[in-house]
Amino acid sequence: MSTLPDPSSVPDAWRGLVDDAAIFPPGDAPLHEASSAHAERRHAPYADLVGTFVVRDTDVPLLRGTPLALSVVVTGGAGNIAGLASLGRKLHVAIEGIEVALRDLDDPAGNARRVVAAVDAARADGQLDDHVPVFVELPAVPVSASWLAAADVVAAAELRLKLRTGGLEAGAFPPAPTVAAWIDAALDRETPFKCTAGLHRAVRHTGTDGFEHHGFLNLLVATRRAFDGAGPDEVVAVLEERDGPTLADAAGGADLARARRWFTSFGSCSVSEPLDDLLALGLLEAR
């Protein structure tokens, strides 16, 4: 990167968009190396683009007293939530988000209810602050009655959704119609969501791994279109758009800051790649 935007020039549409997930695949950066790099980014010219530092719950004891704002991925089940919240307070760690995946694929709604009960208990005990968002990762499968039932539970409890958009295998990248249905379900329930995996580039493309990667700009524009009432075919077309200038024109003509109320952020093992793409597309001002 040769030119970087001034923090004051980062529009609301991009503020806090990229959660720093450097320690997760395929980056797999060592924890302390990644945490030091994240701390430096908090003072860099593009600081406002960066959101939380994403870690596993097993990493929290190694970050005692860190000044970083953390999003913590629960590696166990719902029963680990209260312990995590308590540990964060004890170690003076700023937990600003919790992410937990539903593991019971036969009864995701029941699993979601267990997560809700654990969150409610942690809040009632004063271990988890009310302002801390909890993201519930639903199974990365096509929308079904059981998937929607789990989404209903999450929405009713005013928790948030987490959607997995990639991974280390081709099958981990959901097709555009599935992603469109996920977005529609979240908006229909007025439930904010974040995405994870495979979104380090702005525009849909074939990666060096040979897999079809979604673009974070595609998802953001698609969310805005869906919110405005676009039908499934139009939303899918936006998700499948591979031409950067065309997508950038669509982004420039949309109020993407309003879409961020719903698509809150995405986790990426790279912060520089999203930044470089926004600069190259003319969506951030370089200095």
In short:
With 287 residues, the chain is α/β, with parallel strands linked by helices.
Your description of this structure?
The chain is of the alpha/beta class. The chain has one domain: Aldolase class I (TIM Barrel). It is built from ten helices and ten strands. It has an eight-stranded parallel beta barrel, surrounded by six helices. Strands 8-9 form a two-stranded antiparallel ribbon. Helix 5 (176-188) crosses helix 6 (216-227). The longest helix has 17 residues, at 108-124. The N and C termini lie close together (12 Å). The model has no long low-confidence stretch (mean pLDDT 93).
Topology:
Layout: E1 18-20, H1 31-41, E2 50-56, E3 69-74, H2 80-90, E4 94-101, H3 108-124, E5 134-137, H4 145-156, E6 160-164, H5 176-188, E7 193-196, E8 205-206, E9 212-213, H6 216-227, H7 232-239, H8 244-252, H9 256-259, E10 263-268, H10 272-280
Shape: globular
Helix content: 25-40%
* Quantity of strands, as a count: 10
Average pLDDT, rounded to a whole number, is 93
Low-confidence parts lasting 5 or more residues at pLDDT below 50? none
* Approximate strand percentage: 15-25%
